[in-house]
C-alpha cells in the first residue's frame, strides 16, 4: 500500500480524497495555484506544493509541474479526482514514465473512451447498444446540416473530446444545426483544444442513467447499480439519485452487464462510469464512458456502503477486489444536490466573492456534505463555482427527499448568491416527487427561467409566527438592560403587527403552557392559534423548532429594524411593528427601481467575445447582439425587442461585470 499520495485537483473532490486517505493512514500532498493558497484542501493535506498562477491552464493542467511535485515530496501515486487531468492519457503516461502510480485506469482505456467518436465504435463492437448517428469528423457547418437532414431532426451536436455539458447543442432545424455546429466547435476548441464535432439522433423524452463500474484489472469487473442523472440544466447535472425510480431489475441487470462488457473490452482498471440514454420504453443506448470518479459518486457510496476512493487506491496499489457481484446490495435511497455559487433568479449567473457566513448542515447517518470551502473563503472566478455536494439518505425515496428538504433549509450561506432556492423548488416539485423525470425536466417545468413563484407555496402563518416569537425574545432581552432609573417598569406588549413583504398580519402572543423547550409561545393570527416551541438563542442564524408540531428551520438575518427570513427556498422581508407604527408604515411610499430597459446588460461576469451590431443599426427582436463567454461557455445575447442602437458601451475583449452596460438603444 502507498504511504503518500498526491491529489492533482482542488476543491471538494481534493478534500474528499484526503479524508479517505487519512482514514487509511496514507499521507497526502495537495497542489495549489495562486488563487488557492488559502484553500481548504491545502489546509487539510499533510503537505502542499505551489504549481502556478490562478488560471487552470497555468497550474492544475501543468503535467510537468505535478510530476515534479511528486518527485519533490516523494508521493508514490496520484489521485486525479475529476476534471482537469483526470482523463488525460498524457498525464497517466507521464506519471508511469516517472515511476508514479496513477489512481485510475491505464492510458489505453483513457484514450479509447475519451474520444466520443471512437468510444461509440468500440461500444458497438462490444455489443453495447448505441444511438444512431454519424461518427465521422464533420468538416464544416454545411456538412453538419446535410448529415442532420440524413439522420432526421432533432439531432444532438457534440464535441468529440467534450464533457461537462461543453460543446453540446440540440438542433431542430437547419439554422440551429448550422449555429449549433459553430458554437459547439468554438467551445470545444476553447475547452479541450480539439474542435472535432459529430452528430447523432436526439432521443426525445430521454432519461440519463449511468452505471458505476469497478474493476481490478485482475479478472474482476463489477457494476454497483445505477444513478439517475436526468435533472440537468444546459447538460450540467443538478440532482442525482441512486437507484433510479424508473429502472426495473431486468433493465438494471442488462445495463450493468453491458457496462461490464465495455469495461472488459478496454481492459479497464479502477472506478469508472458508463452513461446511457434511456427512452420511455426502457430502451437504453450508450452515451459515453467517464474514465474517472464521477462528481455524483457519493450517492452510490450511500446505498452500497462502499468507499469508491478507497477501492480505487487499493486497486492502483495492486490489490485484488475481495467483493463479487452477488455481494453488491442496494440499501435505501440517496439523493445529491449540487450547491453552486450562482443566482437562479438571474438565469443562474455565476457568483463570485467571499463567503461571509458559511454553515453547512451537520453530517449524520442521513446527511452528507462534501465541500471544499469554509467561512471566510472565496469563490474564485477561475474555477467551477461549486460550493458543495449535499447528499441525503433515507430508507425510501420519499424519506430521502424529506431529508434533503430539511438539509437545504439548514444550509446557511451568505456573501455570494447560491442555488438553494432552486434546489428546494425541485425537491417540492410534484413531478420530481413522482419520479417522472427526463433530461428535459428543467426546461419543461421552468420554461421561462426560475422565479420566486416557482417556490413551493407555504402557509404564511409559519413565518409570521416565527417572526413574532423572534421579536418577542429580543424585546424580552431589551427590557432587562441595566442602568434603568429607579422605579422604572417596562412591560413587553403582546399585540403586534407582523409585516411580511408589505402585507400586514396582526398577532397576539402569550406564553405557551408546559413548554418543553426554552422558547414557547402561542401566537394568535387572524383568530387561529399557532404554538411555537424552540431552543433558539438570540443571535443564532437558524431558528429550529416546531410550529403546531411540525418541525421547521428558518434562517434569520437582521436587516435594519426588521428581519430577512429564509424557509423552503423562499425569503421574506419582515418587520414587527406596534399597531400604531404599522398604520404609518402602510403610508410610506415605495421607491421604484431605475428603468434599464434601454440597455443590453451583461447577465454575468465574463468576456465579451464578439459584438454583432454597430451604432445607428436597427435590430429586430431575437437578433443576435453579442456573445459573452463565462466559465468557458458561450452565451448568445439577443435583442428582446425591436430598436435602434444608439451607443456601444463595451468593445470585444472587454471583461464584463454583472449588469455592465454593453449596448444602449434609442
Automatic annotation (TrEMBL):
Q: Does the keyword 4Fe-4S apply?
A: no
What does the record give as the reaction this protein catalyses? Answer: propanoyl-CoA + hydrogencarbonate + ATP = (S)-methylmalonyl-CoA + ADP + phosphate + H(+)
Q: What is this protein called?
A: propionyl-CoA carboxylase
- Which is a Pfam family this sequence falls into? Biotin_lipoyl
Annotated GO molecular function terms are: ATP binding; metal ion binding; propionyl-CoA carboxylase activity
Species whose genome carries this gene: Azospirillum thermophilum
Sorted alphabetically, the Gene Ontology BP terms of this entry are: lipid catabolic process
Pathway field: Metabolic intermediate metabolism; propanoyl-CoA degradation; succinyl-CoA from propanoyl-CoA: step 1/3
Q: List residues of the ATP-grasp domain.
A: 120-317
Q: Lipoyl-binding domain location, by residue? A: 587-666
Q: Which Gene3D superfamilies match?
A: 2.40.50.100, 3.30.700.30, ATP-grasp fold, B domain
**Cross-referenced PANTHER family, in alphabetical order?**
CARBOXYLASE:PYRUVATE/ACETYL-COA/PROPIONYL-COA CARBOXYLASE, METHYLCROTONOYL-COA CARBOXYLASE SUBUNIT ALPHA, MITOCHONDRIAL-RELATED
- In what residue span(s) does the Biotin carboxylation domain sit? 1-447
Keywords attached to this entry: ATP-binding, Biotin, Ligase, Lipid degradation, Lipid metabolism, Magnesium, Manganese, Metal-binding, Nucleotide-binding, Plasmid, Transit peptide
